[in-house]
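Repro case for the chain-ordering regression, as requested:
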Amino acid sequence: MNTTDTTTAPNSSARDRVTGTAFTRGLGVVILAGMILLVILGLFVSPPDANQGESVRIMYAHVPGAWLAYLAFVVTGISSAAYLWKRTRSLTWDRIAGASAEVGVLFMGISLVTGSLWGRITWGTYWTWDARLTTTAFLFVTYIGYLAVRGLGGTHQQRARRSAVLALLAVLEIPLVHFSVELWNTLHQEASIAGRGTDVEMDGLMLFTLFLGVVVFTLMYVWLVLHRQRSLALDDMLDDSGLDNALTARRAEAQGVAR
Amino acid sequence: MDNAGFIFASYIITFGSVGAYALGVIRRSRKSSRDVPRDQRPWL
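-- result from build under test --
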C-alpha cells in the first residue's frame, strides 16, 4: 500500500509552492501598474529636456536604478551589522543581506548599462574612465565578489560571518561613489535634484516621472528582496534537514516505480 | 523621437532583466518549496 508522508510531501496547492503571500501578490499588481505608467510617461508623455533632448528619457530608468543599488547595498550593510551584533544575531539578517546585495547588483548593472547608452548619445562614447563611472564599476565588481564569497563552502554561520565582514567594508565605497562627482572633475553631472547648491528648474511632469520611477523601483526592490530572502531560507532549510538526501532517495524510488 | 533605438533598448534591458530575475527567483523557490513542509515556512 502506498502511503504519503504528510510532513515532506509535495504540496497540493500551487500557491503553497511559492514564496508569495497576499501582500507580495498585491504589491506585484501595484508594481505592474506603476511600471506601465512609468513606461508611458517616460517614453511618450514627458517632454524632452532643453539640453539633453530625448535622451533624458533614459534617466527615468538610470537614476532609480542607481538609487536602488545604493539603497540595496546600505541594507546589506545594516543587515550584516545586525547579524554580527550578538543581541540580534540571526541567519534571517544574513539572508536579507544576501538577497539585498543580489538585487543591488542587478540594479547597479541596469544603471551601468542605461548610463552607457545615455553616454553614447550625449558624450559620443559608451564608456569613459570618468571618476563616477570608474568608482561605480568598482562598486559593482565588489558586490559581485561579495556574492561569490557567499557561495563559498562552510556552514551557514561561517557564510554569514565572513560575508557580513565583507559587506561592512564594501558599504564604505558608497560615499566615495556618490561624492566622486564633487571630489574630482568628472564628465558625469552632479546631483540634479538633491545636490548641494543645485538650483535646477525641472518640468513638473519630468520631475513626477522621475519620482514615479524611484517609487516603482523601490517597490520592485521590496518585492524582489522578500522573495529572494524566502528562497534563500528554503535553500537553508533543505541543507539543514538533509532533505536533499531524502529527495534523491525519493527520485530513485519513483524511477523504480516507473519501470 | 531621436535616438529611439538607445532609449527603447534602455527600457527593454531594465524591465527585461528585472522580469527575468523575478522569474528565476520564483522558479527556484517553487523547486525548493516542493521539499519543504508548509509549516516550516513562516511567511505562509
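Ordering looks correct now. The two ends of chain A are 18 Å apart (CA to CA).
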